[in-house]
Design goal:
Elements (H helix, E strand, L loop, with lengths): L2 H9 L5 H10 L1 E7 L2 E2 L1 E4 L2 E6 L3 H16 L13 E5 H8 L7 E5 L8 E3 L19
Parallel strand pairs: 4-6
Antiparallel strand pairs: 1-2, 1-5, 3-4, 6-7
Helix pairs in contact: 1-2, 2-4
Protein name: SseB family protein
Organism: Streptomyces armeniacus
Length: 138
Amino acid sequence: MDLPEEIAACRAGDGDPAALLGEFRRTAVLVPVDGDVPRAAVYGGIRWIYAFTDEAALHRFADARDADARTDAHGTAPPEPRDYLPMPGARLLDHVIPASDGPTGVALNVADEHGSMLFPPVRGIVPPEAAVDRDPSR
């Protein structure tokens, strides 16, 4: 199965989380950037890097953010940039996240109500040194 199919299976309760993670690691995802910095949001004390399975998912997110900006109290927020870098999910998990300041995970396809998935910064998903549940004795 491809990544969207693995997400759908897991969300339906029929998927294999290990297969989902493996497919994410093998798939080139699109990471929106400001310069060379991945776009992210902080929620629950975790920095969530945005990533998308394709340009359509990225544009749905950017369009939703643009609509929110137009309806803010001042109407002054600029449109969301649509610059992105394609990268394998493995690179994001194994290199980008460990280089980040503080706990960092991946929020995949966040504008898609039924196609989104979170990859939290826990052992088995990110390297042990970047995991929030790491063994403190190491």
